[in-house]
Structures are given as C-alpha cells and as structure tokens.
Design a protein that fits this description.
The chain contains 22 helices and 43 strands. It is α+β, with helices and mostly antiparallel strands and 922 residues long.
Length: 922
C-alpha cells in the first residue's frame, strides 16, 4: 500500500492540486488509500498459524517448481520454469496472510451431514490450522492426512496428495467415510488462490507479477483460466481429472485478505453446492443444478484438479484439446437474439450421448454436418427469452454445460431501451433547487421509481458515469435507432439542462463539465429538501463546491458524445432537428475535448472511458473540412498519446488498476502509428476479457468495484457485463478488422459487444450490471453507469462475414444463405449500418440508411448491397468504404458508377418503394 501512496502523492504537483481541487484529492485518499491500508496493517498483526519458521519443501513438478509450506503442505509458490521470478500464487504476501481463516491453494471446504441429520456442518482446513501429518505414498510429490487441521468430529478422513500425472501437476483429495453412517457431502469447495492482489504495486509491477482468473462453470468440462495481466505467456489452466465437476463458483468472503478496488477477492471451485443452494443461495437460480453425494460407510472417493501450462489466452482452447478436454465454440456467441441462426461447434474424443435443454423449449438444437477435423456441429435457435442451459452428455459419462442468454431481436431490444429511457426515466417535474428537469435520470427498477436523491451525489446528479449513464444511453440510442419522439425530448434536455447546467455554456470556463447537479447542503436549503431515509453523512454526498468542480476529465466524453450525436442527426437526416445546426453541434463536441485537456488536465493524462468519441469527432472535423478545429484537437490528442508512449503500460486511471482507459489508449496509439503501445494495450485487454462457453463470462471485461459507485447492491463483486465489456470491444474489434485471420479477436470483441445488451430487460430497463455471486445471480436494481457501455455498443455494432478454415462460412450479427457460389448476408443488428467482409478486408459503414442484404461473390470479390428503402427522415444513404486489413492481392474497393462526395463519403438517393442496389468492386 505504501508504494501506491507514494505514486499518488508524487503525481499531485502544486499546479495540479489547484486544478483538480484539494477536496477531490482528500476524497481519493480517503476512499482508496485509507480504506485499503488499515486492514493490511491489522492483518499483519494477526498471529501466524502456518508455522513458516519450519520451512518449505520444493519439488520439480513438470513445468513448475512447486513450493509447499512444510507444516500445512499448502502452496507457497507455483513458479513456471519458463518465466524467471514469476509466481502464480501470492507467495510474496504469504507471511502477512499466514493466520487462521486465510486460504491457500491446497485447502478444502466441506459441508457435511450424516444421513440421519437435517443440519449441515461446515469444515475447513483453513479455519484453525494445525500441522498436518505427512504420509508416505508411492508416486507422489507430497501427501498428508488433514485430520489434525480439521474439527475432531468430522466423519471423514481426508488425505491430500500432490502428484505428477502424464507430466502435469495434480492436486488430489481422497475422502473416506470413517463412520458407520452414510455421510452426505452437500458442499465441497477447493479454494483457487492465485495472485490477483494488486495492493501496493505499480502498474508495471502488477503487469509483471499479477494474474486474473476466470471460470468456465461447465460441470465436468469446466475449467479455470489464469492469465497474467500483461497478456503474455504462460497462462494456467486448472481442469478436473476424473469426476470433479465445476458446479459453482463461490466467493471466499470469509477470507480476511482486504478486499477493495485493488483486490477482488478469492473464489473456490465448487464440486457440490446443494448445502449452499438450500440456504445462502435459495433465492437465486444457479448456473448448474446444485447437487450433493452420499458417501457410504467405508466408501472412498477421489477429487482431483490438474494444472496445465498454456501460452497466451488465445492458446487455451488448443491446449485443452491437446489434453483431451472438451471445447465449445459458439457463433456468434452465447448471447443469442431470437432472430439469429446460430451455430455451436464442440470437440471431444468421445461421442455425444445426449443433449438436453433447460428450461425446456428455450432453445432448439439441430445436428449439422461434422467438420473435416471432427468437430461436432449444431444449429442453435433461441426461442424463449432468458437464461438457457445446454447439457451435453458424452459416452464416457462426462457432462458439459453451456449457458446461453436468449434475448429479443436486437432492434426490439434497442427500441425498448430507448422507450424506457424517455418514458419511465424521463424526469420532467419542478426541481427549483437542482434544476435537472427535463432529463433522463437514474431509475430504481425494484422500486419502479426514479432516483432523485442518493447518498452518492452523482447518482441523482446527472453527471459522472453513475448519473450521466442514462441520458448518455438515450443519446447514443439515437445513433443506432433514431426516433422522432425521443429525439424531441432529448433536444429539450440538451438545450436546457446538459448545455448550460451540466456543462458551462459561457464564461472563462466555457465547456467545463460539472461533477453533479445534485449536492448536499442542508444548512443553506429548506429542511424538507433531503429525504430522512438516506444517510448523507458520507464522503460521497458532495457539497455544492465539490459538485460544481470541473476537474474530473471522465465527465467530458459523455457530454461530447451528446453533442456529436446531435451533429450526426442534423447532418445526416431530415427533420429530426434543425439541419442547419450541424456545424455548431460538431464544434461544441470538439470544444468539449479541448476543454477536457485544458480544464481537467490531471485526469486527462489517462485514457477515458468512451474516449473513442474524440477520435470520431476528429474524423468528422476532417471530413467536414473544419481544418482549424481538426488541427487543434489532433494536436492535443497527440500530446496525450506521446505521454502514453513513454509508459510501459500506458493505461493508468484514477484507480490503482482499471479496465476502461485501454479503449482510448489503443485508439490513439493506433491512429498515431504507435503500434507497440497499441499491442501492449490489446494484450492487456485479452488478459482480462476471456473467451469462455458461458454468456456471463464470455467477453466480460473484468470489473469488480463499480457496484459501490454505480449500483444499488453495493459490494466488491465480479460484475457481469458492466460497461467495460462493450468499451473494450472497441479496440478488440478494431484490431480484428486489421487482422481478419484472427478469429479469437472476433469472438472476444463480439462477446463483449453483445454482452453489453444481454442484461436489458424485455421492457427496456438496463442495469448497471448483473451480479455474479451465486447468492444473487440477477440484475442490479438501478440503471447506474450502464450508458457508458451502450456507447460502446452504439459506435461498434456491426455484422461480420468470414470464412473459417474449419467451420466454413460464418456470420456474426447476421444470417447467411448461399446462392450458388454467392454468399448472402442478412444483417440482424439493430442499426444494420455496417458490415465487415473479412475475406477482402472491406469495412462498409453507413452514417444514414441501412443495409437490408449483402451479396458477396468470392470468385470475383464483388459485393452487392441492397439498401433499405427511404423514409421521411432518410431520403439518402451516406456510405463509406475503408480497408483496414492489408490483404495481399486485394485492390482498393469503390462503388460502381458512383463518385465520392465532398465529405469523403458516397451519397446515395434511396428509392421510396424498393431497396436500392449498389455494387462494390475492385
């Protein structure tokens, strides 16, 4: 913690102290430093029970050096031989984490009852440690009877064995019923303790030493993937041997290692979970059916996990196949709109015995042709909205579960979202003190009411991510699916509240953005101003001076995006808003970017969530010939990129570690040709954005503290598709369009893109995120900061057409048909405004109009588009063609018989009665 404290103090020069305000720094220190530092000091004062003074044992364990604590035979080090000085487990915090109740790799947790009992009793090797009894067993590295470190009344004898099998390290537990009564094992958890403790480390140290890990909660086919923060090899796979299913993933919240913004917490691999499902988890629908097992008197069972070294994250699936583990690949992923014709490919050495769908009828599954290399292939269709689970049973009895989320067609999801925002969340009532009306305000779905007061000022204050999220989402929705009624309301908001209240409209600080319109000032306002049911005695209940502060750069992209959407509506459509206002809206967007670096310079040194907006604004300034504004903005963005170029890991944040700055850092690094920094950034994203056969984790960029700042149920918890999923999908898919042979990038990015809309309810409510804890497994109760993620969806939604070497012709965001040699794509995205044709690397985007159908001829490379017919607002299509991928032999594409217009785009008059056809050719 001391290292982080020094880092913060070092960065706050006198100049920056003035600019960002003393109050902001005090809040930062209070909420981050003091919160994290004191518990570590207290933890270090606890009595050690691991008896580290008795020493350690080291073993040659295949690709690892395994270091065990002699007294406990738990892991003190798991060091891959291929990387010097790197440890998968938190070995350097072993001493401070050596008291009772702190978990280590090699521990086990149980809930048991005899067949005549009704109550479960818990047992843990970590609860009250005593030295274990080492035992001699053939062909093992180390073995121990754990009886001494478990309660005396435990009805089982438990032995733990460390061994090598086929050159791989294995952790095995042998459980024997030593009584005359049958014993039910209602919970069996194996703590997964790897070094995700970021406290006290710089970004450079964290990326060199730390890991993140992600679960595939897939029963017998499940695994845990452990990746280094840098994204570099090696990664680690923890996979079962024999019958050790990954049934549930349980947070070890009883471990006293201080959890916070620099430490997410540890988890355990649950083999059985019935005892939890009956009590703590009884109100949640689990990913898998909770089970238990009966151990007869004298009966013995073994449970084992193997530790497999892999390359980078992209190599994990091939390593699983190499080790004869089941692998699944879904196209377009595991979030499945009802109108999408999806595919599923599975690979395992045993034949499939059966496939079951739960709940019944939620999915249809039809067998397709097996691929050349023996992948099973299926057509999958979503039928009923909600969670759906496939259970594949193989001939050897192995069960694999794959969790899908079925949603309505994207166009319906987005339409419902926009309607909810501008009706249920439309705040249009007297608000004399805070002047927030009219606006789109935070909404509490559980109470079915707007949130007009909150102890976190920003939630009700229309700024920061947690308050701006809803109106930002409403604005970005118009980019995807414009609606006249919604636009009319939003224009009122922009003209009267956003530009003039949230953002200063005049004066020396013009274009500065306030942190919140809501504030806490009980001494200067009437007594009945604030609810008596809310505790405002907290740092987050900002006084007016703090709420008015202009120094938080993260607030500026939201406002810039709103100005930019207004520009696009005025420039590209007819009748939505005053068409002559386009230039001023674009200039206002650009000036917001300039204000960010001038008025909020400290935080502007970091990549911003939604920072891609400044790249989009810059491109439009160039296209419009606004050269002075273009040059000024580009120069400022290059200064920032040049600063990032000097850093090993150029995506710092107001947090010790973050997963949102990477988006903008990649975009500008790529734009200015700093490809080394773009690659470093992409590698880091791929390390925390996994590809896993489960809708909740597939493409889910890691985030675990923003329920505190933007949620209703406030706790440190892995967030399911928080806004990071869609924001990080921006650079991943940008890089895929440059490298269309990299199928892994497409799967990662598309998983994040679709994950961002997976949690929207049928009536259009969009939560801050979905709760991952097995006790909850549901949407958060308020909208919070969801809109930042929807920005990522809105600017990045697209269809992709490709030919995979093994799986053949595939579509993401569309349905395929084949007519002779021609491949026909029908987009299923909400906007239907962009398509990437991977074989020729062509990126087609429409700023107005939509694509009804694309016809690709692989023999000639010709692309025929059918553009949707005109409507009252869209008499013409604005179409751009680019070729981000450099593919040998592919020449420049253009529209046949069409000339590029002044803005660098094709302007195509649309037919009012039929589709309009255009042809792209080389």
């Amino acid at each position: 913690m001391k290292i982080f404290f020094k880092r913060i103090i070092f960065k706050f020069s006198k100049r920056n102290l003035v600019k960002i305000g003393i109050a902001s720094i005090v809040l930062l220190l209070n909420s981050h430093l003091l919160f994290a530092q004191s518990p570590w000091i207290a933890l270090g004062k606890k009595t050690s029970s691991l008896q580290l003074e008795k020493g350690f044992s080291s073993f040659d364990a295949g690709g690892f050096t395994l270091k065990l604590v002699k007294s406990s035979q738990t892991v003190a080090g798991l060091l891959p031989k291929s990387v010097k000085g790197f440890d998968f487990v938190p070995g350097d915090s072993l001493k401070v984490r050596s008291a009772d109740g702190l978990y280590h790799l090699g521990d086990i947790n149980l809930r048991l009852r005899t067949i005549t009992d009704t109550a479960w009793k818990s047992y843990s090797t970590a609860a009250k440690r005593k030295p274990v009894k080492a035992i001699a067993m053939k062909n093992t590295l180390a073995a121990a009877d754990l009886s001494e470190t478990l309660a005396a009344d435990i009805p089982l004898t438990i032995k733990r064995i460390w061994e090598l099998k086929d050159g791989k390290l294995v952790l095995r537990f042998q459980l024997s019923n030593k009584t005359s009564k049958a014993v039910e094992i209602g919970a069996l958890g194996i703590p997964m303790i790897f070094d995700n403790i970021l406290d006290g480390r710089t970004l450079e140290q964290a990326h060199a030493k730390n890991v993140f890990y992600d679960p595939y909660i897939g029963k017998d086919a499940g695994y845990l993937q452990v990746t280094r923060l840098s994204g570099h090899a090696p990664s680690l796979i923890v996979a079962p041997i024999g019958k050790t299913p990954f049934e549930a993933y349980n947070p070890l919240n009883d471990d006293k290692t201080p959890r916070g913004i620099a430490f997410e917490g540890f988890y355990e691999w649950m083999v059985y979970s019935k005892a939890y499902a009956e009590k703590e988890w009884k109100n949640a629908e689990q990913w898998n059916t909770p089970t238990s097992i009966i151990l007869k008197p004298g009966e013995t069972r073994n449970y084992a996990l193997q530790f497999i070294l892999a390359g980078a994250a992209k190599d994990i699936e091939s390593k699983l196949i190499e080790n004869k583990r089941p692998v699944a690949v879904a196209v377009p992923g595991y979030v499945l709109p009802k109108d999408v014709d999806a595919k599923l490919f599975t690979k395992y050495e045993k034949k499939i015995k059966s496939i079951e769908v739960y709940p019944f009828g939620t999915l249809t599954v039809k067998v397709a042709e097996t691929t050349k290399k023996g992948w099973n292939s299926y057509f999958i269709k979503g039928v009923i909205s909600g969670r759906a689970r496939l259970t594949i049973t193989y001939a050897d009895g192995l069960e694999q579960t794959i969790n899908y989320k079925v949603i309505e067609p994207e166009s319906e999801v987005i339409a419902s979202y926009g309607n909810f925002l501008t009706t249920k969340q439309w705040f249009n009532q007297p608000d004399q003190v805070f002047k927030r009306s009219p606006s789109v305000i935070t909404y509490d779905y559980e109470k079915q009411q707007q949130v007009v007061q909150d102890s976190r000022a920003w939630i009700a204050g229309l700024s920061d991510e947690g308050g701006a999220g809803s109106w930002l989402g409403a604005m970005m929705k118009q980019l995807v699916h414009p609606d006249q009624t919604e636009i009319t309301k939003l224009k009122q908001f922009v003209d009267s509240v956003m530009f003039g209240r949230i953002q200063l409209k005049d004066g020396p600080k013009k274009y500065g953005v306030r942190k919140s319109l809501f504030y806490y000032a009980p001494d200067s306002l009437p007594k009945d101003t604030y609810s008596k049911d809310i505790n405002f005695k907290t740092w987050s209940a900002w006084p007016k001076k703090e709420a008015d502060d202009l120094g938080r750069s993260y607030n500026y992209p939201h406002v810039a995006a709103a100005h930019w959407v207004m520009y696009r509506l005025a420039r590209n459509y007819k009748g939505y808003i005053d068409e002559t206002s386009w230039k001023q809206h674009l200039i206002d967007a650009a000036e917001t970017g300039m204000a960010m670096v001038n008025i909020a310079p400290y935080y502007a040194q970091f990549g911003q969530m939604e920072g891609t907006i400044f790249y989009l604004i810059l491109n439009d300034l160039k296209n419009e010939g606004l050269n002075e504004e273009y040059t000024r903005l580009e120069n400022e963005m290059k200064k920032r990129a040049n600063h990032w170029r000097t850093l090993d890991y150029p995506f710092g944040s107001e947090m010790p570690w973050d997963s949102t700055g990477q988006e903008e850092v990649y975009v500008w690094s790529d734009y200015f040709g700093y490809q080394d920094k773009a690659q470093v950034t992409l590698n880091a994203i791929l390390a925390y954005m996994p590809v896993i056969p489960h809708w909740a984790y597939n493409g889910n960029a890691r985030r675990y503290w923003d329920f505190l700042y933007g949620g209703k149920l406030m706790r440190i918890e892995r967030m399911i598709h928080h806004y990071g999923s869609a924001l990080n999908a921006i650079p991943v898919l940008m890089d895929y369009r440059k490298n269309p042979d990299n199928f892994y990038l497409l799967r990662t990015g598309y998983g994040g893109l679709m994950g961002s809309i997976a949690n929207i309810t049928k009536d259009g409510f969009a939560p801050a995120a979905f709760h991952a804890y097995p006790s909850t497994l549901k949407n958060d109760g308020i909208t919070g900061d969801y809109g930042s993620g929807f920005f990522g969806y809105a600017v990045n939604t697209s269809s992709y057409l490709l030919k995979h070497k093994e799986f053949g012709w595939l579509a993401f965001g569309g349905n395929l048909n084949q007519n002779g040699n021609n491949i026909i794509l029908k987009p299923t995205t909400a906007a239907k405004s962009s398509v990437f044709v991977a074989p020729v690397g062509v990126w087609i985007t429409l700023e107005a109009g939509s694509i009804d159908e694309l016809d690709y001829d692989p023999s000639t490379g010709s692309i025929r588009l059918k553009l949707s017919k005109a409507d009252e607002h869209t008499p013409r299509a604005i179409l751009r063609i680019s070729q981000p991928a450099k593919i040998a032999g592919v020449l420049k594409y253009s529209l046949k018989d069409k000339t590029i217009g002044k803005r660098g785009a094709y302007e195509i008059q649309l037919s009012e009665g039929n589709t309009t056809e255009v042809i792209l050719s080389k």
